[in-house]
Amino acid sequence: MTAPLHLIEVTSPEHAREFREFPVRLYRADPNYIRPLDKDIDQVFDTKKNKYFRAGELTRWLLQDAQGQTIGRVAAFINKRTAKTFEQPTGGMGFFECIDDQTAANTLFDGCRAWLAERGMEAMDGPINFGDRDQWWGLLIDNFGAPLYGQNYNPPYYRRLLETYGFQVYFEQFTYFRKVGDPLTPEYQEKAQRMLLHNSKYSFEHLRLKELEKYAEDFRIVYNQAWVKHDGVKEMRPEQSRSIMKKLRPVIDEKGCWFAYYEGEPVGFFIALPELNELFRHVNGNLNWWGKLKFAYHRWRGSVRTLTGIAFGIAPRTSAAE
Q1: Angle formed by the axes of helices 238-248 and 212-227, to 10°?
Q2: Pick from 31, 33, 32: which is nearest to 22 by CA?
Q3: What is the pLDDT of residues 109-144, one digit of tens each?
Q4: What is the pLDDT of residues 203-223, one digit of tens each?
Q5: 95, burial (CB in 10 Å: exposed 0-12, middle 13-18, buried 19+)
């Protein structure tokens, strides 16, 4: 691409609408693509709704060609609470969408890089989210089926665009699939019986919505023991865990969320939710009254056939639990 490209900062409602609409056009021919909810995208960039603005800053751009057509988008951001917990002060890049053109991609990445460097950052991590790690985190490089709710979806050529620019794999994250009715292996069953189910010190229970605040605290305890040791992860506060559970409450299936206890103390959890994209594929990104009606109809029809595990944690072994 040799014609001049224009990097335009998103500063108006019209720009924000184009930021949402560009991927819809980009993926128009892809039968697997499911449009994210407009509100889920908008709230990331809403200074009143996204708590990460309390200790961070963000900007985003559209990339247009010489004819004024949008050919890409991206956002750059800094979480000041975690930026300097890495070996190099590190900012973020995310919400990257682009046509298959290296020059266009480089222009978007260069914009992020310059903006972050001006603010003292020495490294750029991405594609990630200006928010929690359970959404819009990472680059899909395999298994290009229908996307899970809140997860990045992209064509295979994105990997080439990023790696040609200089991005390298920081860590790999895997999603596994199994049929609920498939039996466990005999080895796994034997180990569970011997080590856990016949040990009276361990107990297991599924979440109960009437006691949601209790499980929010149990979740927080295990999370802080299991995850804070990772780079860039801060300890979760009680109000954060309560906010997470409150947000999830409308879609929680009680028997899809399980907690493990050792002598009554929480030591593990597995949180699985109905796969919402099996419903949101019918609303075209908009949960207005018509979208909510279609959502309710397809939920009533039993369109959801999959549970997605969104969080799994085990507290590190202690002397008491060995």
Answers
A1: 120
A2: 33
A3: 999 999 999 999 999 999 999 998 888 999 999 888
A4: 999 999 999 999 999 999 999
A5: buried
User: Before 127, cis peptide (omega within 30)?
Assistant: yes
Which residue, 60, 23, 10, 284, is CA-closest to 158? Answer: 23
Number of CB atoms found within 10 A of residue 154's CB: 23
Identify the bridge partners of residue 251 per DSSP, sorted by sequence position.
none
First to last CA, the chain: 61
Locate 189 and state its tokens: 């069953």
Token pair 């985190």: residue: 137
What does DSSP assign to residue 161? H
**79, 50 in Cβ contact below 8 A?**
no
Output the DSSP codes for 201-218. TEEEEE--GGGHHHHHHH
* Calpha distance 62→298 (Å, rounded): 35
**Order of strands, edge to edge, in the sheet holding 123-125?**
6-9, 56-64, 70-79, 90-98, 123-125
| Rounded Cα distance, 227 and 222, in Å | 8
- The confidence band for 227, taking pLDDT boundaries of 50, 70 and 90, is confident
